[in-house]
Amino acid sequence: MSDITIICCYSNEKIYNNFLDSLKTQTCNYEIICIDNTGNKKFSSCSSAYNSVLNQIRTKYVIFSHQDILFNKPDSLAKFLEYLDKIAPHDILGVAGVKFNEVGVFANILHKNKAGEFIFAGDFRLQSPMMECDTLDECFFGGYSEHFRANPFDEKICNNWHLYAVDACLNTKAKSGHVFICDPEILHLSAGNLSMLFHYEFYRLCGKYSKIFPVINTTCTTSKTDFINRNYYLFRFFRHYVKVFILSHLKL
């Protein structure tokens, strides 16, 4: 009997198969729910993809994973499961995260840089094997299955492929839950790419929680949530992308 279900929405079959091969090296039992978004692109957001299978989970815990995750040691998943046993039913656990009152990302995971070398992700190593933070990176996170069934991902605000874990963390904290990161050795093959859609989603997320959190930090960006600052945030990035668009077309 498995204690944990891993859910992965994939758009690249080769990368996903490497993920599955890496999972086979793990020492603990697990169930896998795969969401194929390669051909017909059925889902336009990770939130809608994950929500579509929440009722299929039959285990105590669930993990939501990117397709480009690999496990560095055979007990990496078992260690993550041990940490899940230590959190409360309304908490969330991940492998990379930030605090509202500190600048920098805490993570013990590795990711590939532009030179193809594996380096530590983030800015700081974890201060202990498991520590509290405020928001998580989307690459690998989870908690009690019942918590996510009772609190599905926000398909309206997070209607693309970004920030759904951040929203889950903020929703959890708003309901007096806690967010933690832990230290199992995991490889993340990409550092991710930001687009204007990411910044627009973050702007709307700031609006959603403006009455609860005066500032929101993520592993990619940060802003105060009041009306003036969140709108200035969006204007700043909109101006940047307009400038890039104009310069790129002047070179044609």
Quick overview:
The protein is α/β, with parallel strands linked by helices and 252 residues long. Helix content is 32%, strand content 23%. The radius of gyration is 18 Å and the shape is globular.
Overall 3D form: globular
Write out the strand line-up for the largest beta sheet, numbering strands in chain order: 2-1-3-12-5-13-10
Q: Count of DSSP helices?
A: 7
**Main sheet properties:** 7 strands, mixed
Radius of gyration: 18 Å
Q: End-to-end span in angstroms?
A: 60 Å
Beta strands, count? 16
What pattern of helices and strands is seen along the backbone?
A: EHEHEEHEEEEEEEEHHEEHEEH
Instruction: Estimate the helix proportion, in percent.
Output: 25-40%
Task: Kindly describe this structure.
There is one protein chain. With 252 residues, the chain is of the alpha/beta class. The chain is built from 7 helices and 16 strands. The strands form 4 sheets. A 7-stranded mixed β-sheet has the order 2-1-3-12-5-13-10, with helices on both faces. The protein has a 4-stranded mixed β-sheet with strand order 4-14-8-9. A 3-stranded antiparallel β-sheet has the order 7-6-11. Helix 6 runs antiparallel to helix 7. The longest helix is centred in the C-terminal third of the chain and has 24 residues. It is globular, with a radius of gyration of 18 Å. It starts with a strand and ends with a helix.
